[in-house]
Design brief:
This protein is mainly α. It has one domain (4-457). The protein is built from 18 helices and two strands. It has helices spanning 26-47, 51-67, 69-79, 93-107, 109-112, 120-141, 146-173, 179-198, 207-210, 227-247, 251-270, 274-291, 293-323, 328-354, 365-371, 384-411, 416-432, 442-457; strands spanning 4-7, 114-117. It has a two-stranded antiparallel ribbon with strand order 1-2.
Protein backbone atom coordinates (compact mmCIF):
# COMPACT_ATOMS: atom_id res chain seq x y z
CA UNK A 1 0.00 0.00 0.00
CA UNK A 2 2.87 2.28 0.71
CA UNK A 3 6.61 2.53 0.74
CA UNK A 4 8.41 -0.36 2.39
CA UNK A 5 11.04 0.50 4.99
CA UNK A 6 13.47 -2.27 5.91
CA UNK A 7 15.54 -1.24 8.95
CA UNK A 8 19.11 -2.37 8.43
CA UNK A 9 19.41 -3.64 11.98
CA UNK A 10 16.23 -5.66 11.70
CA UNK A 11 16.98 -7.51 8.46
CA UNK A 12 16.39 -11.20 8.94
CA UNK A 13 14.53 -10.77 12.23
CA UNK A 14 11.19 -9.60 13.51
CA UNK A 15 10.45 -7.72 16.72
CA UNK A 16 11.31 -10.86 18.59
CA UNK A 17 12.72 -14.33 18.36
CA UNK A 18 10.40 -17.15 17.40
CA UNK A 19 9.40 -19.51 20.15
CA UNK A 20 10.00 -23.18 19.65
CA UNK A 21 6.90 -23.80 21.77
CA UNK A 22 4.67 -21.83 19.36
CA UNK A 23 4.02 -19.06 21.85
CA UNK A 24 3.95 -15.34 21.14
CA UNK A 25 7.53 -14.01 21.08
CA UNK A 26 8.55 -12.09 24.19
CA UNK A 27 8.86 -8.63 22.67
CA UNK A 28 5.56 -9.05 20.87
CA UNK A 29 4.05 -9.90 24.24
CA UNK A 30 5.46 -6.71 25.74
CA UNK A 31 4.00 -4.65 22.89
CA UNK A 32 0.57 -6.22 23.43
CA UNK A 33 0.71 -5.81 27.20
CA UNK A 34 1.86 -2.18 27.02
CA UNK A 35 -0.69 -1.19 24.40
CA UNK A 36 -3.46 -3.10 26.19
CA UNK A 37 -2.66 -1.27 29.42
CA UNK A 38 -2.77 2.13 27.72
CA UNK A 39 -5.80 1.46 25.56
CA UNK A 40 -7.58 -0.35 28.38
CA UNK A 41 -6.92 2.56 30.72
CA UNK A 42 -8.55 4.96 28.28
CA UNK A 43 -11.58 2.73 27.76
CA UNK A 44 -12.07 1.95 31.45
CA UNK A 45 -11.67 5.61 32.38
CA UNK A 46 -14.28 6.62 29.81
CA UNK A 47 -16.63 3.79 30.79
CA UNK A 48 -16.65 4.67 34.49
CA UNK A 49 -16.27 8.41 33.92
CA UNK A 50 -12.89 8.66 35.63
CA UNK A 51 -11.54 11.81 34.00
CA UNK A 52 -8.01 11.75 35.47
CA UNK A 53 -7.50 8.15 34.34
CA UNK A 54 -8.65 8.98 30.79
CA UNK A 55 -6.35 12.01 30.59
CA UNK A 56 -3.38 10.19 32.09
CA UNK A 57 -3.76 7.13 29.84
CA UNK A 58 -4.39 9.20 26.70
CA UNK A 59 -1.33 11.42 27.11
CA UNK A 60 0.75 8.42 28.21
CA UNK A 61 -0.23 6.70 24.97
CA UNK A 62 0.83 9.75 22.95
CA UNK A 63 4.14 9.88 24.83
CA UNK A 64 4.65 6.13 24.35
CA UNK A 65 4.15 6.53 20.59
CA UNK A 66 7.13 8.90 20.54
CA UNK A 67 9.35 6.47 22.44
CA UNK A 68 8.07 3.24 20.90
CA UNK A 69 6.19 3.66 17.58
CA UNK A 70 5.30 -0.04 17.70
CA UNK A 71 3.39 0.38 20.96
CA UNK A 72 1.82 3.57 19.62
CA UNK A 73 0.59 1.85 16.46
CA UNK A 74 -0.89 -1.00 18.52
CA UNK A 75 -2.75 1.51 20.72
CA UNK A 76 -3.96 3.36 17.63
CA UNK A 77 -5.21 0.12 16.08
CA UNK A 78 -7.11 -0.66 19.30
CA UNK A 79 -8.63 2.80 19.69
CA UNK A 80 -9.38 3.56 16.03
CA UNK A 81 -12.96 2.15 15.97
CA UNK A 82 -13.79 3.47 19.46
CA UNK A 83 -14.84 6.87 20.75
CA UNK A 84 -11.73 9.03 21.15
CA UNK A 85 -11.11 10.56 24.58
CA UNK A 86 -12.44 14.11 24.73
CA UNK A 87 -9.62 15.20 27.04
CA UNK A 88 -7.21 15.54 24.10
CA UNK A 89 -7.75 18.94 22.42
CA UNK A 90 -8.22 19.46 18.67
CA UNK A 91 -7.34 17.99 16.27
CA UNK A 92 -7.99 15.17 18.72
CA UNK A 93 -6.56 11.93 20.04
CA UNK A 94 -6.34 10.08 16.71
CA UNK A 95 -4.40 12.86 14.99
CA UNK A 96 -2.13 13.27 18.02
CA UNK A 97 -1.38 9.54 18.04
CA UNK A 98 -0.60 9.49 14.33
CA UNK A 99 1.63 12.53 14.72
CA UNK A 100 3.40 10.98 17.71
CA UNK A 101 4.04 7.70 15.88
CA UNK A 102 5.41 9.53 12.83
CA UNK A 103 7.69 11.65 15.02
CA UNK A 104 8.81 8.53 16.84
CA UNK A 105 9.66 6.93 13.50
CA UNK A 106 11.72 10.00 12.56
CA UNK A 107 13.56 9.91 15.88
CA UNK A 108 14.42 6.25 15.23
CA UNK A 109 15.90 6.87 11.78
CA UNK A 110 19.51 6.98 13.10
CA UNK A 111 18.86 3.74 15.03
CA UNK A 112 16.99 1.72 12.41
CA UNK A 113 18.73 3.25 9.35
CA UNK A 114 15.92 2.14 7.02
CA UNK A 115 16.57 1.27 3.41
CA UNK A 116 13.91 3.01 1.36
CA UNK A 117 12.26 0.92 -1.33
CA UNK A 118 9.63 2.87 -3.22
CA UNK A 119 6.68 0.81 -4.47
CA UNK A 120 3.95 1.58 -6.97
CA UNK A 121 1.19 1.65 -4.32
CA UNK A 122 3.28 4.20 -2.40
CA UNK A 123 3.65 6.46 -5.41
CA UNK A 124 -0.05 6.34 -6.23
CA UNK A 125 -1.16 6.87 -2.64
CA UNK A 126 1.14 9.84 -2.15
CA UNK A 127 0.06 11.20 -5.52
CA UNK A 128 -3.61 10.99 -4.58
CA UNK A 129 -3.08 12.72 -1.23
CA UNK A 130 -1.00 15.48 -2.86
CA UNK A 131 -3.66 16.04 -5.50
CA UNK A 132 -6.41 16.22 -2.87
CA UNK A 133 -4.26 18.62 -0.84
CA UNK A 134 -3.92 20.94 -3.85
CA UNK A 135 -7.63 20.62 -4.60
CA UNK A 136 -8.72 21.75 -1.14
CA UNK A 137 -6.05 24.46 -0.74
CA UNK A 138 -8.41 27.36 -1.65
CA UNK A 139 -10.75 26.34 1.16
CA UNK A 140 -7.85 25.86 3.55
CA UNK A 141 -6.52 29.36 2.82
CA UNK A 142 -9.88 30.80 3.92
CA UNK A 143 -9.66 28.86 7.18
CA UNK A 144 -12.23 26.33 5.98
CA UNK A 145 -14.85 28.98 6.65
CA UNK A 146 -18.58 28.47 6.24
CA UNK A 147 -20.59 25.27 6.07
CA UNK A 148 -18.96 24.04 2.89
CA UNK A 149 -15.46 24.95 4.05
CA UNK A 150 -16.02 23.21 7.37
CA UNK A 151 -17.05 20.02 5.56
CA UNK A 152 -13.99 20.23 3.29
CA UNK A 153 -11.70 20.72 6.28
CA UNK A 154 -13.25 17.88 8.28
CA UNK A 155 -13.04 15.40 5.41
CA UNK A 156 -9.49 16.45 4.53
CA UNK A 157 -8.24 16.05 8.11
CA UNK A 158 -9.93 12.64 8.33
CA UNK A 159 -8.34 11.55 5.05
CA UNK A 160 -4.93 12.96 5.97
CA UNK A 161 -4.97 11.32 9.41
CA UNK A 162 -5.79 7.96 7.84
CA UNK A 163 -2.97 8.47 5.33
CA UNK A 164 -0.59 9.24 8.20
CA UNK A 165 -1.66 6.05 9.98
CA UNK A 166 -0.89 4.02 6.85
CA UNK A 167 2.55 5.62 6.48
CA UNK A 168 3.32 5.04 10.16
CA UNK A 169 2.26 1.41 9.78
CA UNK A 170 4.64 1.00 6.86
CA UNK A 171 7.63 2.02 8.94
CA UNK A 172 6.62 0.11 12.06
CA UNK A 173 5.59 -3.14 10.36
CA UNK A 174 8.16 -3.45 7.55
CA UNK A 175 9.91 -6.80 7.97
CA UNK A 176 8.53 -7.08 11.49
CA UNK A 177 5.91 -9.26 13.10
CA UNK A 178 2.43 -7.81 12.41
CA UNK A 179 0.71 -9.91 15.05
CA UNK A 180 0.76 -7.49 18.02
CA UNK A 181 -0.93 -4.79 15.94
CA UNK A 182 -3.39 -7.29 14.45
CA UNK A 183 -4.29 -8.62 17.90
CA UNK A 184 -4.89 -5.13 19.26
CA UNK A 185 -6.80 -4.05 16.15
CA UNK A 186 -9.20 -6.97 16.34
CA UNK A 187 -9.51 -6.47 20.10
CA UNK A 188 -10.59 -2.86 19.54
CA UNK A 189 -13.04 -3.95 16.86
CA UNK A 190 -14.38 -6.57 19.27
CA UNK A 191 -14.92 -3.96 21.99
CA UNK A 192 -16.75 -1.74 19.49
CA UNK A 193 -18.89 -4.70 18.46
CA UNK A 194 -19.70 -5.55 22.08
CA UNK A 195 -20.78 -1.94 22.70
CA UNK A 196 -23.02 -2.02 19.63
CA UNK A 197 -24.66 -5.32 20.56
CA UNK A 198 -25.14 -4.50 24.24
CA UNK A 199 -26.50 -1.02 23.55
CA UNK A 200 -28.91 -2.17 20.84
CA UNK A 201 -32.33 -0.98 22.07
CA UNK A 202 -31.13 -0.73 25.64
CA UNK A 203 -28.74 1.16 27.89
CA UNK A 204 -26.41 -0.65 30.23
CA UNK A 205 -24.17 0.97 32.81
CA UNK A 206 -20.65 1.81 31.69
CA UNK A 207 -21.41 1.04 28.04
CA UNK A 208 -23.43 4.27 27.85
CA UNK A 209 -20.27 6.37 28.07
CA UNK A 210 -18.58 4.36 25.32
CA UNK A 211 -21.44 4.62 22.83
CA UNK A 212 -22.61 7.54 20.73
CA UNK A 213 -25.79 9.12 22.06
CA UNK A 214 -28.80 8.48 19.83
CA UNK A 215 -32.51 9.22 20.06
CA UNK A 216 -33.22 6.41 17.58
CA UNK A 217 -32.88 2.96 19.13
CA UNK A 218 -34.05 1.08 16.05
CA UNK A 219 -30.53 0.58 14.68
CA UNK A 220 -27.27 0.01 16.51
CA UNK A 221 -24.66 2.76 16.46
CA UNK A 222 -22.20 1.61 19.07
CA UNK A 223 -19.27 4.05 19.12
CA UNK A 224 -20.05 5.20 15.55
CA UNK A 225 -22.22 8.12 14.55
CA UNK A 226 -23.89 6.34 11.64
CA UNK A 227 -25.27 2.78 11.62
CA UNK A 228 -24.23 2.20 8.00
CA UNK A 229 -20.62 3.10 8.77
CA UNK A 230 -20.77 0.86 11.84
CA UNK A 231 -22.09 -2.01 9.73
CA UNK A 232 -19.53 -1.61 6.95
CA UNK A 233 -16.67 -1.38 9.44
CA UNK A 234 -17.85 -4.56 11.16
CA UNK A 235 -18.13 -6.30 7.78
CA UNK A 236 -14.53 -5.35 6.97
CA UNK A 237 -13.24 -6.36 10.41
CA UNK A 238 -15.17 -9.64 10.25
CA UNK A 239 -13.65 -10.39 6.84
CA UNK A 240 -10.19 -9.62 8.23
CA UNK A 241 -10.73 -11.94 11.21
CA UNK A 242 -11.86 -14.74 8.90
CA UNK A 243 -8.89 -14.08 6.64
CA UNK A 244 -6.54 -14.49 9.59
CA UNK A 245 -8.42 -17.63 10.65
CA UNK A 246 -7.92 -19.14 7.20
CA UNK A 247 -4.17 -18.57 7.45
CA UNK A 248 -3.84 -19.58 11.13
CA UNK A 249 -1.84 -22.71 11.92
CA UNK A 250 -3.12 -23.18 15.45
CA UNK A 251 -6.56 -24.57 16.19
CA UNK A 252 -6.86 -22.37 19.26
CA UNK A 253 -5.94 -19.29 17.25
CA UNK A 254 -8.40 -20.25 14.55
CA UNK A 255 -11.18 -20.82 17.10
CA UNK A 256 -10.51 -17.45 18.75
CA UNK A 257 -10.56 -15.66 15.40
CA UNK A 258 -13.79 -17.35 14.34
CA UNK A 259 -15.38 -16.38 17.67
CA UNK A 260 -14.26 -12.79 17.12
CA UNK A 261 -15.74 -12.88 13.62
CA UNK A 262 -19.07 -14.08 15.06
CA UNK A 263 -19.15 -11.14 17.50
CA UNK A 264 -18.31 -8.71 14.71
CA UNK A 265 -20.99 -10.28 12.54
CA UNK A 266 -23.56 -9.83 15.31
CA UNK A 267 -22.73 -6.12 15.51
CA UNK A 268 -23.02 -5.90 11.76
CA UNK A 269 -26.44 -7.54 11.91
CA UNK A 270 -27.88 -5.14 14.51
CA UNK A 271 -26.69 -2.17 12.43
CA UNK A 272 -29.40 -3.27 9.95
CA UNK A 273 -27.16 -2.05 7.14
CA UNK A 274 -27.76 -3.44 3.67
CA UNK A 275 -24.41 -2.01 2.59
CA UNK A 276 -22.68 -4.04 5.30
CA UNK A 277 -24.21 -7.29 4.06
CA UNK A 278 -22.78 -6.71 0.59
CA UNK A 279 -19.37 -5.77 1.97
CA UNK A 280 -19.31 -8.88 4.14
CA UNK A 281 -20.39 -11.07 1.22
CA UNK A 282 -17.55 -9.65 -0.88
CA UNK A 283 -14.99 -10.34 1.84
CA UNK A 284 -16.17 -13.90 2.46
CA UNK A 285 -16.52 -14.71 -1.24
CA UNK A 286 -12.99 -13.58 -2.04
CA UNK A 287 -11.71 -15.83 0.76
CA UNK A 288 -13.60 -18.77 -0.71
CA UNK A 289 -12.25 -17.90 -4.17
CA UNK A 290 -8.74 -17.68 -2.72
CA UNK A 291 -9.05 -21.19 -1.28
CA UNK A 292 -10.90 -22.84 -4.18
CA UNK A 293 -12.33 -21.35 -7.35
CA UNK A 294 -14.66 -24.29 -7.80
CA UNK A 295 -16.02 -23.82 -4.31
CA UNK A 296 -16.42 -20.11 -5.01
CA UNK A 297 -18.47 -20.82 -8.12
CA UNK A 298 -20.67 -23.18 -6.12
CA UNK A 299 -21.01 -20.53 -3.41
CA UNK A 300 -22.14 -17.99 -6.00
CA UNK A 301 -24.64 -20.40 -7.56
CA UNK A 302 -26.07 -21.21 -4.13
CA UNK A 303 -25.58 -17.85 -2.48
CA UNK A 304 -27.28 -15.62 -5.04
CA UNK A 305 -30.66 -17.43 -4.88
CA UNK A 306 -30.32 -17.64 -1.09
CA UNK A 307 -29.65 -13.91 -0.89
CA UNK A 308 -32.72 -13.20 -3.02
CA UNK A 309 -34.79 -15.23 -0.56
CA UNK A 310 -33.23 -13.78 2.59
CA UNK A 311 -33.16 -10.12 1.51
CA UNK A 312 -36.96 -9.55 1.76
CA UNK A 313 -36.94 -11.00 5.28
CA UNK A 314 -34.05 -8.72 6.22
CA UNK A 315 -35.85 -5.66 4.84
CA UNK A 316 -38.99 -6.64 6.77
CA UNK A 317 -36.97 -7.03 9.99
CA UNK A 318 -35.39 -3.63 9.41
CA UNK A 319 -38.73 -1.93 8.79
CA UNK A 320 -40.30 -3.51 11.86
CA UNK A 321 -37.29 -2.39 13.90
CA UNK A 322 -37.45 1.16 12.57
CA UNK A 323 -41.18 1.79 12.34
CA UNK A 324 -42.82 -0.98 14.36
CA UNK A 325 -44.42 -2.63 11.33
CA UNK A 326 -43.66 -3.58 7.76
CA UNK A 327 -46.53 -1.51 6.44
CA UNK A 328 -47.00 -0.14 2.95
CA UNK A 329 -46.00 3.29 4.26
CA UNK A 330 -42.75 1.88 5.65
CA UNK A 331 -41.91 0.25 2.33
CA UNK A 332 -42.72 3.50 0.56
CA UNK A 333 -40.33 5.39 2.84
CA UNK A 334 -37.56 2.89 2.06
CA UNK A 335 -38.26 3.25 -1.64
CA UNK A 336 -38.06 7.02 -1.30
CA UNK A 337 -34.70 6.73 0.46
CA UNK A 338 -33.38 4.49 -2.29
CA UNK A 339 -34.61 6.96 -4.89
CA UNK A 340 -32.73 9.71 -3.11
CA UNK A 341 -29.53 7.71 -3.38
CA UNK A 342 -30.07 7.24 -7.09
CA UNK A 343 -30.56 10.99 -7.45
CA UNK A 344 -27.34 11.58 -5.54
CA UNK A 345 -25.44 9.12 -7.71
CA UNK A 346 -26.86 10.56 -10.93
CA UNK A 347 -25.58 14.03 -10.03
CA UNK A 348 -21.98 12.79 -10.15
CA UNK A 349 -21.57 12.44 -13.94
CA UNK A 350 -22.89 15.97 -14.48
CA UNK A 351 -20.32 17.33 -12.06
CA UNK A 352 -17.59 15.32 -13.75
CA UNK A 353 -18.53 16.64 -17.18
CA UNK A 354 -18.42 20.21 -15.87
CA UNK A 355 -14.75 19.73 -14.88
CA UNK A 356 -13.50 16.41 -16.27
CA UNK A 357 -9.78 16.86 -15.55
CA UNK A 358 -9.48 18.14 -11.97
CA UNK A 359 -13.09 17.88 -10.76
CA UNK A 360 -15.28 20.33 -8.88
CA UNK A 361 -13.05 20.31 -5.79
CA UNK A 362 -12.45 17.95 -2.89
CA UNK A 363 -15.34 17.98 -0.43
CA UNK A 364 -17.69 19.89 -2.74
CA UNK A 365 -19.97 17.07 -3.90
CA UNK A 366 -22.81 18.03 -1.56
CA UNK A 367 -23.05 21.71 -2.52
CA UNK A 368 -22.33 21.07 -6.20
CA UNK A 369 -24.96 18.31 -6.39
CA UNK A 370 -27.57 21.08 -6.67
CA UNK A 371 -25.60 23.79 -8.47
CA UNK A 372 -24.13 21.53 -11.15
CA UNK A 373 -25.55 18.03 -10.75
CA UNK A 374 -29.20 19.03 -10.86
CA UNK A 375 -30.20 17.31 -7.62
CA UNK A 376 -33.31 18.77 -5.94
CA UNK A 377 -31.45 19.16 -2.62
CA UNK A 378 -27.83 18.95 -1.41
CA UNK A 379 -26.77 15.34 -1.01
CA UNK A 380 -23.59 13.30 -1.05
CA UNK A 381 -22.98 10.49 -3.51
CA UNK A 382 -23.13 7.54 -1.10
CA UNK A 383 -20.43 6.12 -3.38
CA UNK A 384 -16.73 6.84 -2.90
CA UNK A 385 -15.80 6.14 -6.51
CA UNK A 386 -18.40 8.58 -7.85
CA UNK A 387 -17.31 11.10 -5.24
CA UNK A 388 -13.69 10.90 -6.40
CA UNK A 389 -14.75 11.09 -10.05
CA UNK A 390 -16.83 14.22 -9.50
CA UNK A 391 -14.62 16.00 -6.95
CA UNK A 392 -11.18 15.08 -8.29
CA UNK A 393 -11.87 14.42 -11.95
CA UNK A 394 -9.93 12.12 -14.23
CA UNK A 395 -6.69 12.69 -12.35
CA UNK A 396 -8.14 11.67 -9.01
CA UNK A 397 -10.05 8.60 -10.20
CA UNK A 398 -7.08 7.29 -12.17
CA UNK A 399 -4.83 7.65 -9.14
CA UNK A 400 -7.36 5.92 -6.88
CA UNK A 401 -8.18 3.04 -9.22
CA UNK A 402 -4.49 2.66 -9.99
CA UNK A 403 -3.84 2.42 -6.25
CA UNK A 404 -6.41 -0.36 -5.88
CA UNK A 405 -4.92 -2.28 -8.82
CA UNK A 406 -1.40 -1.86 -7.44
CA UNK A 407 -2.47 -3.20 -4.04
CA UNK A 408 -3.97 -6.30 -5.65
CA UNK A 409 -0.81 -6.93 -7.67
CA UNK A 410 1.38 -6.45 -4.59
CA UNK A 411 -0.74 -8.82 -2.49
CA UNK A 412 -0.30 -11.58 -5.08
CA UNK A 413 3.41 -11.79 -4.22
CA UNK A 414 2.91 -12.04 -0.45
CA UNK A 415 2.88 -15.18 1.76
CA UNK A 416 -0.35 -17.15 1.94
CA UNK A 417 -1.41 -15.89 5.38
CA UNK A 418 -0.82 -12.29 4.31
CA UNK A 419 -2.80 -12.84 1.12
CA UNK A 420 -5.78 -14.23 3.03
CA UNK A 421 -5.91 -11.20 5.33
CA UNK A 422 -5.14 -8.70 2.59
CA UNK A 423 -7.61 -9.89 -0.02
CA UNK A 424 -10.45 -10.33 2.49
CA UNK A 425 -9.92 -6.84 3.92
CA UNK A 426 -9.48 -5.30 0.48
CA UNK A 427 -12.61 -6.89 -1.01
CA UNK A 428 -14.87 -5.87 1.89
CA UNK A 429 -13.47 -2.33 1.95
CA UNK A 430 -13.75 -1.90 -1.83
CA UNK A 431 -17.35 -3.14 -1.75
CA UNK A 432 -18.22 -0.81 1.14
CA UNK A 433 -16.96 2.11 -0.94
CA UNK A 434 -19.75 1.43 -3.42
CA UNK A 435 -22.31 2.73 -0.91
CA UNK A 436 -20.43 5.05 1.47
CA UNK A 437 -17.32 7.26 1.64
CA UNK A 438 -15.15 5.29 4.13
CA UNK A 439 -11.79 6.98 3.31
CA UNK A 440 -13.12 10.27 4.74
CA UNK A 441 -13.96 8.53 8.04
CA UNK A 442 -10.85 7.75 10.08
CA UNK A 443 -12.90 5.59 12.41
CA UNK A 444 -13.98 3.41 9.48
CA UNK A 445 -10.84 3.36 7.34
CA UNK A 446 -7.86 3.45 9.72
CA UNK A 447 -7.93 -0.16 10.87
CA UNK A 448 -8.50 -1.61 7.36
CA UNK A 449 -5.59 0.53 6.13
CA UNK A 450 -3.33 -0.80 8.90
CA UNK A 451 -4.41 -4.37 8.13
CA UNK A 452 -3.62 -3.90 4.44
CA UNK A 453 -0.19 -2.46 5.25
CA UNK A 454 0.46 -5.41 7.56
CA UNK A 455 -0.41 -7.80 4.74
CA UNK A 456 1.83 -5.92 2.30
CA UNK A 457 4.99 -5.30 4.32
CA UNK A 458 4.87 -7.38 7.52
CA UNK A 459 7.05 -10.39 8.26
CA UNK A 460 4.66 -13.35 8.27
CA UNK A 461 6.94 -16.30 8.89
CA UNK A 462 7.35 -18.00 11.24
CA UNK A 463 3.81 -17.53 12.49
CA UNK A 464 3.21 -17.37 16.27
CA UNK A 465 -0.03 -18.33 17.99
CA UNK A 466 -1.11 -14.80 18.87
CA UNK A 467 -4.73 -15.66 19.55
CA UNK A 468 -4.19 -18.79 21.58
Amino acid sequence: MATSFVPARSLGRSWSRSSSKSRMPSRDTLVVLASAALGGGIVLGMAFDIGPLVTLAAFAAIAASLVSPGVGLAVLAFMAPLKPPASVPAPGFDAAMVGGILLGCIYRLPIDRPRLRVSLPAILLVGFILFVTISQTPDMLTGWAGTVGHLVGFQYIQLLTGFGAAIAAVYVLSNRSPYPVLVMGLSGAGVAALIAVVMFRASYGPFINLAVASTDGSRALGPFGNPNYLGVFMAIAMSAALGLAVGARSRRARAALVATAVLLGAAMAVSLSREALIAAAAGVLILVWWRSRRLAIVAILVGVPAALLIYPAFVEWRLISETGSASAAAYAATSLSDSGRLVALAAGPQMFLSSPIIGVGFGHYVDMSVLVGGAPYPIDAHNWYMTVLAEDGSVGILLWLGLLAAIVLALRTRPAAAQALGFATFAAFAAGCLFLEPPTSFQTAALPAIFLVAALVGRWAPQPEVAA
